[in-house]
């Protein structure tokens, strides 16, 4: 509301009804609300009317909170922050809980406004870069001795409706030397504004049932899901496995500590974009990043962040539910807004025949919509899992055991197309890339790799 009043275009600022309500209730709010919330509502004393001097005089408690308040004044006015400023604030305020279990004293209201406000103002490239790279300085990432490593950035809030294929795709790709690193959390709140409204009206706390994530699936199958970065590195290097999953809980505890806060704010902060473009483990060979997106306008920022990571190849996919799973179903005739499902954009490092970009690296860019029928797939409806972890696993394991059908086709499509678009060795011809993915499944190798992962996750030191 504050940013709308201060910075939104006139047509989207407060309605007449909102202005009347604020005029009527502001005197009551000023008496009832704590100072930090009054500051967020009226930082300059220009919204809540006469007598609202709290906002202009508010400075916060302690050095860290004072720094946060200073940054918020710029954000609440519709402004943007510099790279160093954002990094400084994030490192000041995290983690929310100290080792002894006590709070760090930072107002959660102020931090929530900071996270929400930057998303409302539409982050600049430098702001997204700051969120993405803020915690790289914790120490050098372990380096896996593999010739190729793909970092998979699925949306952390999981799939609520459709089959999520990435875990099974990673098992397939590992069979021919394309190692993968998956990362995420067991549960992450989605943006659910209707749920937030119901909570406000009825004054009840409702936790939306989570979407299916890789961590949930691995945990259900008996794998260890609290691997350290060095344990993950060893599993990636293992000839009989070749892929790993790392939880944000182990990789970045400070950012993981925000989950409770993100559940309360009910809106995806900038971190929801930047957490998908992480490199918790590096590789001696070529590296690639693949990330899913849903909202138009975020594909270019994601690719920008991938280039900042200095990877050889980058790919953003608008899969179903904004995840990475491309589908073989027919495109709906009623789809008219936004980019279609199976839209892909990316880049790959190539030879001198490609024009150099601003950073001096030769890259070949591409942008296309993948039509599965062009590659011989019959159109099929996507298997629905409806938030069932066991159903997702049942579909994936049946496919890895060679059972033909929609799940099998999606695993093959997502393995082969990704290999081809990233420019992986042996995938120059997309038909050959798809055939080797099928061979990895039909031979039983991919299924065995997944079982090996579950076993090794408990044995690795």
From TrEMBL:
<dbReference type="GO" id="GO:0016757">
    <property type="term" value="F:glycosyltransferase activity"/>
</dbReference>
<protein>
    <recommendedName>
        <fullName>Glycosyl transferase family 3 domain-containing protein</fullName>
    </recommendedName>
</protein>
<keyword id="KW-0808">Transferase</keyword>
<dbReference type="GO" id="GO:0003921">
    <property type="term" value="F:GMP synthase activity"/>
</dbReference>
<dbReference type="InterPro" id="IPR036320">
    <property type="entry name" value="Glycosyl_Trfase_fam3_N_dom_sf"/>
</dbReference>
<dbReference type="GO" id="GO:0005829">
    <property type="term" value="C:cytosol"/>
</dbReference>
<dbReference type="InterPro" id="IPR035902">
    <property type="entry name" value="Nuc_phospho_transferase"/>
</dbReference>
<keyword id="KW-0328">Glycosyltransferase</keyword>
């Amino acid at each position: 509301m504050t940013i709308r009043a201060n910075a939104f275009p006139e047509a989207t600022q407060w309605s007449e009804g909102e202005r009347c309500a604020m005029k009527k209730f502001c005197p009551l709010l000023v008496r009832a609300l704590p100072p930090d919330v009054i500051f967020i509502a009226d930082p300059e004393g220009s919204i809540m009317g006469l007598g609202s001097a709290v906002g202009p005089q508010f400075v916060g408690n302690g050095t860290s909170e004072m720094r946060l308040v200073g940054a918020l004044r710029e954000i609440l006015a519709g402004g943007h922050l510099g790279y160093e400023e954002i990094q400084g604030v994030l490192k000041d305020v995290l983690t929310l809980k100290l080792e002894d279990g006590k709070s760090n004293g930072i107002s959660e209201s102020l931090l929530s406004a900071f996270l929400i406000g930057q998303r409302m103002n539409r982050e600049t490239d430098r702001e997204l870069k700051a969120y993405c790279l803020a915690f790289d300085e914790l120490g050098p990432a372990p380096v896996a001795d593999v010739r190729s490593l793909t970092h998979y950035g699925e949306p952390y809030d999981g799939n609520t409706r459709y089959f999520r294929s990435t875990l099974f795709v990673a098992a397939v790709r590992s069979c021919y030397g394309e190692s993968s690193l998956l990362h995420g959390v067991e549960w992450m709140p989605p943006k659910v504004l209707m749920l937030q409204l119901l909570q406000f009206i009825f004054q009840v706390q409702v936790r939306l049932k989570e979407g299916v994530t890789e961590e949930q699936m691995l945990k259900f199958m008996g794998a260890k899901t609290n691997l350290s970065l060095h344990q993950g590195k060893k599993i990636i290097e293992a000839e009989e496995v070749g892929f790993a999953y790392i939880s944000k809980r182990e990789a970045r505890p400070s950012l993981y500590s925000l989950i409770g806060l993100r559940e309360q704010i009910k809106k995806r902060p900038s971190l929801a974009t930047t957490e998908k473009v992480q490199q918790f483990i590096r590789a001696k060979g070529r590296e690639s990043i693949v990330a899913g997106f849903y909202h138009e306008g975020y594909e270019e920022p994601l690719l920008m962040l991938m280039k900042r990571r200095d990877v050889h190849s980058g790919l953003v996919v608008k899969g179903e539910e904004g995840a990475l799973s491309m589908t073989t179903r027919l495109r709906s005739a009623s789809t008219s807004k936004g980019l279609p499902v199976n839209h892909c954009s990316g880049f790959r490092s190539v030879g001198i025949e490609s024009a150099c970009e601003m950073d001096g690296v030769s890259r070949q860019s591409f942008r296309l919509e993948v039509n599965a029928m062009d590659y011989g797939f019959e159109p099929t409806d996507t298997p629905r899992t409806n938030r069932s972890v066991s159903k997702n696993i049942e579909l994936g394991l049946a496919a890895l055991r060679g059972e033909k059908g929609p799940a099998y086709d999606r695993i093959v499509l997502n393995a082969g197309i990704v290999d081809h678009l990233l420019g992986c060795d042996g995938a120059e011809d997309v038909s050959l890339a798809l055939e080797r993915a099928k061979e990895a499944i039909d031979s039983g190798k991919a299924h065995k790799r997944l079982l090996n992962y579950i076993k090794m996750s408990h044995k690795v030191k």
